[in-house]
Design brief:
Shape: elongated
CATH class of one domain: Alpha Beta
Strand content: 5-15%
Helix content: 40-55%
CATH architecture of one domain: 3-Layer(aba) Sandwich
Distance between the termini: 167 Å
Structural class: alpha/beta
Length: 804
């Protein structure tokens, strides 16, 4: 069987399926040399000009840049940097319309040239063999070189493969009409192109190097033959002109006879393909340290007065190139980036030139077909006959209109190279390629979303597994700790006992906390003021004084309830008490006072309020009475109760008894003095033994004796006034006597206070005893005043009865 190289040497090549022969129209530009243009006023450089993501910006607005200076840097394997095509100033960084069929906007860097065209420092390499393989690949990557045939795949990834390569194919076919950029580049820079081929040979080490070029480029064919005549490894393959022979799979079929299966890359077959312009860019990057900042662009079309190939800086606006080639806009002028078969219409003349731009087409009105509306497919089958990928274009169009994406994938939509041959021969004027491009974009978007969803699912599953592991680890740790505690508690040592006590204490604290919480909840639930429970609990936690007031109010309420119960019981039972019961009450007064001071709030029998409540009305919350004052008040209250019982016993005596008799009058002060003595005795009994100091006790006894003498004198005077013949003046003077009695009581209180003040420099125990004596004196004075008022009222009533 004849080998591939033998067939190539004999000029026998294979044929691919389909294909067409459109008018070439290459004569418009293939007879003029490549022109160098002056610097434009502004350059618009898209950050992403290849397949993959854009790099990270290295510059900011206002920065000065030099020619060849990188504007971005590689951040991932599929990223490429872009460089400043000339020296100038960064005037803006924003989104702008880029070269894309949809007219979308992407991030772009705006540079205003300074006209100096100053280069950055470069390192020229005369012999690339002095560089290692890694250094060459790094130079290609840093130069930002991507496939310049139209795909835009990063070149440094394509040349960094280690599998055995059988064929390195250099694509110089340039099969699309109007385009002559590669043709002119080969003619003028064939030596540099061959240097690039040698660098690729050094990196890939292929068995054979095949240069495929169509036979409609005789001058370029001759230039390559002369440049490679001493390079035996290179085979120049002149193939028949047929569109689209420049397609990757089609050219591989023509040169090697191998079919590239669907979804398989040529590298899997041991084949690598590079464009002729890419080889020139590789030589410039490795040998001259020149990044990819310019390329040859064919500016053609009958709407131009001077169509030709030009060296265009990347980022040059389309409008500037058209002006340099004599473009005159018309009413229906269309601008196409790329060739007439695979190109797309431009939405604006401000679209910049990028790395994959090889042609700019400005046709005349006669070259543009009429805007005939598409009609229904007649199923002629011509599209399937000319499809170089052996697809079914009509079925693809139906599924694309129906958005049946699974069916499109079954029909191998992504094998379509968008050559446009099907649309070219369609009698129904159906723009088949546009349907395919839209469907591809939508499917890619769905795939990206599915990929993101899968990644999110994987992250969720990984997080869930991690949480489960952490939970099991915590449980195991707690289990081991519990076992260690139990083992420590079971040991008959001090450590074991301390561990048990610690556990018991912790349980007790938890139970106490739960009980406290439950009690607070019960108190809140029994609130009848109509307030919000949550706000009430917040107030309790935030205001301790309010909580204290509520407790005092609750104690006062309980005291009032006890008082009412005592009154009801007193009305039903005899009101007299025996002498031995009175003595028992007074004897138990100290213990009752102590108990009352520890538990409930004492109640004053005169007004039905506790001393705390009375003092809280007269004083601020900070000046509440102490426990000592409560004990004193309790003793005074019991003395008053005993006195009232005695008065009730006197009233229950026979009415014919002469209450104004001298003996009785003499006896009344004696009983009052006895009550006073009985009231003082329990109070003194509650004090510690230290309060019975000689000096202090004498002063207290003297004050008490003085108060008793005054009380007896006033009682006798009152009795003599009652025996006088005129009773009415006596009644009239009762109020004055009561006032005098109150005044005397106040005087006695003042005297007691003076005694206390005089002893302020004494010990706290002495001051305490003096305060007790003063309180007792005040209580006695008040009791005497009330007794005198009641006696006067009875005398007045008796005189009134006698007069009747």
């Amino acid at each position: 069987m004849e080998s591939v190289i033998e067939r190539i040497e004999r000029g026998h090549f294979w044929k691919f399926h389909g294909g067409i022969h459109p008018p070439e129209q290459k004569f418009l530009t293939n007879d003029k040399p490549i022109r160098h243009l002056p610097l434009p006023k502004q350059l618009i450089i898209p950050v992403r000009q290849h397949i993959g993501n854009g790099g990270e910006l290295l510059i900011a607005v206002g920065d000065k840049v030099l020619k060849g200076q990188p504007l971005t840097q590689n951040s991932a394997p599929m990223t490429l940097p872009v460089h400043a095509p000339t020296s100038g100033t960064i005037t803006d960084i924003k989104d702008s319309v880029v070269a894309h069929p949809s007219g979308l906007s992407e991030l772009c860097v705006f540079i205003t040239p300074d006209g100096e065209d100053r280069w950055r420092e470069r390192q020229v390499c005369d012999d690339f063999h002095e560089l290692s393989r890694q250094e060459i690949v790094k130079k290609i990557a840093q130069a930002g070189i991507a496939g310049m045939g139209g795909a835009g795949f990063p070149t440094h990834i394509k040349v960094n493969n280690k599998p055995e390569i059988n064929y390195l194919i250099i694509n110089a076919a340039e099969c699309e009409p109007y385009i002559t950029a590669d043709d002119l580049l080969i003619r003028e820079h064939s030596e540099a192109i061959v240097d690039g081929i040698k660098i690729l040979d050094h990196l890939l080490l292929p068995a054979f190097i095949l240069i495929g070029i169509e036979d409609n480029k005789p001058e370029a064919i001759e230039a390559l033959r002369q440049a490679t005549k001493n390079y035996d490894k290179v085979k120049l393959c002149v193939i028949p002109t047929k569109y689209p022979a420049g397609g990757e799979k089609q050219l591989i079929k023509v040169l090697t006879g191998q079919e590239v299966p669907s979804g398989i890359l040529p590298i899997s077959l041991g084949i690598v393909m590079q464009n002729i312009a890419t080889c020139f860019a590789i030589a410039e990057a490795v040998l001259n340290d020149t990044p990819l900042i310019r390329r040859v662009v064919t500016v053609s079309g009958r709407a131009l007065s001077k169509p030709r190939n030009v060296w265009a800086l990347l980022g040059t606006p389309v409008e500037y190139l058209l002006e340099q080639c004599g473009y005159q806009a018309g009413k229906r002028r269309h601008l196409i980036m790329g060739g007439p078969m695979m190109g797309f219409s431009l939405p604006s003349t401000q679209v910049p030139i990028v790395k994959i731009t090889n042609c700019l087409l400005a046709p005349e009105e006669s070259e543009i077909p009429a805007d005939n509306k598409e009609v229904e497919c007649i199923r002629c089958g011509q599209c399937a006959e000319v499809c170089p990928s052996q697809l079914l274009p009509q079925e693809l169009q139906w599924s694309a209109k129906a958005k049946d994406y699974p069916q499109l994938q079954k029909l191998n939509l992504f094998d379509c190279i968008d050559c446009g041959a099907c649309a070219y021969v369609c009698p129904s004027q159906i723009p088949l390629v546009q349907y395919y491009r839209v469907a591809k974009a939508e499917i890619r978007q769905l795939q990206v979303q599915e990929l993101k969803a899968e990644k999110a699912k994987d992250r969720f599953e990984a997080r869930k597994a991690r949480l489960e592991r952490e939970k099991k680890a915590r449980e195991e740790k707690h289990k081991k700790a519990a076992e260690a505690r139990r083992a420590a508690m079971n040991k008959p040592t001090e450590e074991g006992q301390s561990a048990k006590s610690a556990v018991a204490a912790a349980l007790a604290r938890v139970k106490a906390k739960k009980a406290q919480t439950a009690s607070k909840a019960d108190e809140v639930s029994t609130n009848t003021n109509g307030e919000d429970v949550s706000s009430q609990g917040q107030e309790q936690t935030q205001d301790p004084k309010a909580e204290q007031k509520s407790q005092v109010a609750a104690a006062i309420a309980r005291a009032k309830a006890k008082k009412q119960a005592a009154r009801a019981k007193a009305e039903q039972e005899p009101e007299t008490l025996k002498d031995d019961e009175q003595e028992q009450v007074l004897t138990q007064a100290p213990e009752k006072v102590e108990e009352l001071g520890q538990t409930d709030v004492p109640v004053d029998t005169d007004n039905g309020q506790s001393p705390e409540a009375q003092s809280s009305e007269e004083q601020s919350p900070e000046d509440k009475p102490s426990d000592k004052k409560q004990k004193i008040a309790a003793a005074i209250a019991r003395a008053k109760a005993k006195k009232l019982n005695a008065q009730k016993n006197a009233e229950s005596a026979p009415e014919n008894q002469d209450e104004n008799a001298p003996g009785n009058l003499d006896q009344q002060p004696t009983e009052e003095a006895k009550l006073e003595d009985d009231a003082v005795a329990p109070v003194q009994a509650t004090e510690p033994a230290e309060t019975s100091a000689p000096g202090k006790q004498d002063k207290i006894q003297a004050a008490v004796a003085k108060a008793k003498e005054k009380a007896r004198a006033k009682a006798k005077a009152k009795a003599e006034a009652k025996n006088a013949p005129e009773a009415e003046p006596e009644v009239a003077n009762q109020d004055s006597e009561a006032q005098e009695t109150a005044g005397s009581a106040a005087t006695e209180s003042t005297e007691l206070e003076d005694v206390t003040a005089a002893d302020s420099e004494q010990s706290p125990q002495e001051q305490k005893a003096q305060r007790i004596a003063a309180a007792v004196a005040k209580a006695k004075a008040k009791a005497k005043a009330k007794a005198k008022a009641k006696a006067g009222a009875r005398a007045q009533e008796q005189q009134h009865l006698e007069s009747e």
